[in-house]
Amino acid sequence: MNSDKKIGIALSGGGVRGISHLGVLKALNQKGIFPNRISGSSAGAIAGALYASGLSPDQILEIIVKTNYFKFLKPAISWTGILKMDTVQELYVKYFPEDSFEALKIPLIIAATDLRRAKVVYFSEGKLIRPLLASSCIPGMFDPILIDKHYYIDGGVLNNLPIEPLDGICDVVIGVNCNHLPDEHNIKNIKNLIERTVIMSMNYNVYSRKDKCDYFIEPKGLAKYGVFDIKKSDEIFNAGYETALHFIEENESILDFATKPKKKKQ
């Protein structure tokens, strides 16, 4: 379905759970829906950038599975992080050789958090790789990323579903959250407690923006996967794919993008 409508998609952060975004994109594409504006935080920014470069969801999944991401992480000699993320730049150069937003095939907005000014910053032009690193720079785990004399950390800290850059610009906005948290009646240990608390905070951040979406897709139960649980990539991808197919079946109006204008919000 070729559409002259501006179809925006906002992709949440969530570590390896962000692979589910690729499954969602695959399902949308198979149904003829091709987002032509993308925004993302953290893992959503990474998935969005690779998709915006022209790679298919299946190609991106293959890259993630075959790449030993952790070999690019080196210890940080700093009190601000355990790992130094700058070295991941070596990996991104391979897939973004022009290092430019303008070189992407689809317009992309990346959300990052300015640490000193305590505000969200949206990057959409100029150099691509540094903002991409900044958006996925988990605080406490990675050293902050320096861009133009400002230090940046994970975009999900303040905006884990960056709808704002799409709102009022796109005819239709699709939000995708990869951190659904099921009910839990037995917190087994401090690790479970911390992980659940962090995801609760992330989801509050997301759900406060849910009403700005025309459609909101959320694969169930993904919070059971760890941030770096790369061995579960296929399961996570399929969860996004199957959820999106079912969502489209239940919300057939999403297929009307090409022929029907977006209803004005009241």
From TrEMBL:
CDD domains given for it? Answer: Pat_PNPLA6_PNPLA7_NTE1_like (cd07205)
The residues forming the signal peptide are none
Would the keyword ATP-binding be found if you checked this record's keyword annotation? Answer: no
Residues at the active site: S42, D154
Coordinates of motif GXSXG in the sequence? 40-44
Query: Cross-referenced Pfam families, in alphabetical order?
Result: Patatin
Query: InterPro entries per the record?
Result: Acyl_Trfase/lysoPLipase (IPR016035), NTE (IPR050301), PNPLA_dom (IPR002641)
Top-level lineage group = Bacteria
The listed location of motif GXGXXG is: 13-18
Q: Which UniProt keywords apply?
A: Hydrolase, Lipid degradation, Lipid metabolism
Q: Where is the motif DGA/G annotated in this sequence?
A: 154-156
Residues covered by the PNPLA domain: 9-167
- What is this protein identified as? Patatin-like phospholipase family protein
State the species of origin. Shivajiella indica
